[in-house]
Design brief:
Blueprint: E1 2-9, H1 33-42, E2 49-54, H2 59-69, E3 74-79, H3 84-99, E4 108-114, H4 122-131, E5 137-143, E6 150-151, E7 163-165, E8 173-182, H5 183-193, H6 204-211, E9 218-221
Parallel strand pairs: 1-2, 1-4, 2-3, 5-9
Antiparallel strand pairs: 4-8, 5-8, 6-7
Helix pairs in contact: 3-5, 5-6
Length: 237
């Protein structure tokens, strides 16, 4: 069974600031966020192929990184969409088109990973790939350690937000990536989703959970080091 990683690197990264998307900013060792992220999947023996989803103006930059880092598993660079889910859907369609002639969809696992989480460990990748041998949908998450608030989301400014409920923290997890699926499952979920005129989604598990509710999603233990780089100060640690 093939394990194909999709690195989602098409975001604008506006919250970091500056004119360059955060996936192309350097980390402490000089490598960019993208290079560090792809390296993790390139080094993993269970990953067979890598696809990078990026912005139109940065295809040449990705190609430059390919040559610099000597990646052997990167098979394609494709364009992302305006929303994250559109980038995932583009990758699903690309894989469906390329692999339809040579294998069944159920023989392919797709690991969708946010490039903004460049420090994903080999342990996480191994555990996800191992779980995909038994399950059709797998995600990575860490237990919530802070008290969580449910709020009235209708307010626009933080000082007007009203606390509605305090959920039981023991049932709450913080989502990470990769989020991984049998290709046939995520394809079917997205085919249903794009028919919904009110489609809204922040991640791929949300698509499967809403549009393919009969498919259970299993959680692999994440790590705090698998953090998301969102703000400028995240690059200082």
């Amino acid at each position: 069974m093939k394990n194909i990683a999709v690195i989602l690197a098409a975001g604008s990264g506006t919250r970091v600031g500056g004119s360059v998307p955060k996936q192309f900013l350097p980390l402490a060792d000089g490598k960019t966020v993208l290079e560090t992220c792809v390296d993790a999947f390139e080094q993993n023996e269970r990953i067979d192929k890598i696809i990078i989803v990026t912005l139109p103006d940065y295809i040449a930059k990705v190609q430059e990184s390919m040559l610099l880092c000597g990646w052997q598993k990167v098979a394609d660079i494709i364009l992302g969409g305006k929303e994250r889910w559109e980038s995932s859907w583009n990758a699903v369609q690309e894989l469906t088109m390329h692999d339809a002639q040579c294998t069944m969809y159920d023989d392919i696992n797709i690991l969708l990973h946010d490039c903004a989480r460049p420090f994903v460990s080999q342990r996480i990748l191994n555990d996800v790939c191992e779980a995909l041998e038994q399950h059709e949908a797998v995600t990575v998450a860490v237990p919530a350690t802070d008290t969580m608030y449910s709020v009235d989301g209708s307010q626009c400014t933080m000082h007007d937000v009203r606390l509605v409920d305090i959920p039981d923290r023991s049932t709450m997890f913080r989502a990470q990536t990769p989020q991984a699926f049998r290709l046939s499952v995520i394809r079917q979920a997205y085919e249903r989703a794009i028919q919904d005129p009110s489609l809204q989604a922040t991640d791929d598990c949300g698509i499967v959970h809403k549009y393919l509710p009969e498919t259970p999603i299993y959680i692999i233990k994440g790590e705090e080091s698998n953090r998301k780089l969102t703000f400028q100060e995240d690059f200082l640690n």
